[in-house]
Amino acid sequence: MDGSQQLQVSCQGVPLAPVAFLRTPLTPARPGGDGGCSAERANEVIILSLPSSVRAHAEALLQAFCDRRVPESVRREVRLEAAFRGDIATIFEHRPPYVSSFLPAREGDEWTRLAIAQFRYDAETRLWTLFCADRSSRWHKYAEVDPSERLEDLIEEVDADPTGIFWG
Length: 168
Hints:
single chain; alpha+beta; five-stranded antiparallel β-sheet; 2 helices; 17% helix; 31% strand; disordered N terminus
């Protein structure tokens, strides 16, 4: 690793195996934490479980899905975005600020952001797992489809939405 020290990463006390390396600032786990996931700083190298080639492929698939799902003609009213954080990809729906005759939108008003679906990658099994959000924005494993090596299968499930959990 070009002379830098290895970063020790663990989740609930279980060490995680390094798969990919990324130089980035890292906030250390807070002392006396709740036993959740933590990492210790070591020359600002963090170990990710999502290989860069897998991430690049996932980014391309999710961007194509977002572009296909919302026609360009309505993107002033609604947009989809895929955002990555570590080994998790989340699809968000964005809508402009509510406009009424009583409260017109002002320049610079923030668009609302609603989480639609989440895809989590497990480097050990090389599987993607689909999650859905409840009304309190907590994530739950989507039980209607098994984890898959093919992210495309999970994207198709979100697109079809046979249960109505993703698009209503």
